[in-house]
Amino acid sequence: MDCILHIFSNIIFSKGEKRSLLLDLQHNKFYFAPNSMEAFAKGCEGKTKTEIFASFSEEEHPIVEEYIDFLQKNMIAAFLPKEAIKNFTAISKKYESPYLFENVILDVDSNFDYKIIYKLDEISIPYIQIRFYNKIDYQLLQIIEELSFVSVEIVVRFGEFDKSALEKYKKVAYLYVYQSPVEEQKKENNKTYYFKNNQTFECIGKVTKHTFSINAPHVFLSLQYNSCLYKKLYIGTNGEIRNCPATEKFGNILDLTVEEVCQLSLDKHFTQMWHITKDQIEECKDCEFRYICTDCRCFITDKSNIYSKPKNCKYNPYAAEWKE
Ligand code: SF4
Ligand code: SF4
Predict the structure, then answer these.
(1) DSSP β-ladder status, 29-33 and 20-24
(2) Which fold has domain 3-85?
């Protein structure tokens, strides 16, 4: 039975200036590869091993062997019977969401007005990040447990929370703890803790090897929309509304009706950066990490150019090097 090379549709080739990244969206990992790998794999797709070798000179056979071995070993492609291939349906890379807003950042201080959380519940936003200025407000977490939010992220200063008290809040999935004496990541009771020694929780769009998101929703989102600002809502301590903490103000959630807040998701001015993709950004468009990276549009290298590279990225895609 003739077997032909088939590339699995959970693989995305992300070509950079210097090298490529092969994103495996089934196993949430990536591989570095030379830029010639994509052309090789796609050129060989649908051919038998004999046909592939026949299309290269004998001197090239060792490298062909090496490339095929890489593709097979990492489950990027496989030789399969022709008849079996029709059973592999291609994955749609279209990003679709039923929500008007998908995530909200909520800043909470000691004067927090609980009317805000009930209004956000009516808007129906699945993911909420709460940045506590002081200690964690457990009463707020209890209210959230009974509302429609799917998952909660907490940002809090080291020493301002009690791990055992958090256990009963099932929706709390992630905790970002800043001003920690040690940097570490650990999972306990279905919650992931990220201890950071940052002095503040202010968001500055920092990009490091550790800020990448290797999963299908993030990659598909990045292919079509802005990977940070799309369908994001920010509510400040006094109820002010912004797209994110660093963008301009659009009224106050306590003064607007739920319908008026929902209307912002259709407002051209509010959503002006939602459609800027990494493929349009200077330097990022040549970077192999662009679909797993976050695109900060507030802290950029050239304030007069909305398509300039995020300021707080230390990666140089032309040299494939991270600066210290
Ligand atoms: S655009 Fe920048 S400042 Fe705004 S939330 Fe995203 S990373 Fe933070
Ligand atoms: S160059 Fe752009 S895409 Fe690449 S790591 Fe930096 S911010 Fe991300």
Answers:
(1) antiparallel
(2) Outer Surface Protein A; domain 3 (3.90.930)
Structure tokens at 278: 């990494």
Taking the domains of the chain in order of start, what are their residue ranges? 3-85, 93-202
Q: Can you tell me the distance from the alpha carbon of 149 to that of 118, in angstroms, rounded to the nearest whole number?
A: 11
Ligand approaching nearest to the C-alpha of 311 = 2
**118 Cα to the center of ligand 2, angstroms:** 37
- In the reported structure, the alpha carbon of residue 273 is separated from the centroid of ligand 1 by a whole-number distance in angstroms of 11
Other Cβ atoms less than 10 A from the Cβ of 58: the count is 7
Q: Are 60 and 43 in contact (CB under 8 A)?
A: no
Angle 17-21-24 from CA coordinates, rounded to 5°: 160
Angle between helices 36-44 and 61-73 (to 10 degrees): 90
Distance (angstroms) between ligand 2 centre and the Cα of 20 equals 13
What pLDDT, in 10s, does the model give residues 84-95? 998 998 999 999
Per-residue pLDDT reduced to its tens digit, 195-236: 999 888 888 899 988 899 999 999 999 999 999 999 999 999
C-alpha separations of 60 from 46, 63, 100 in Å: 20, 6, 53
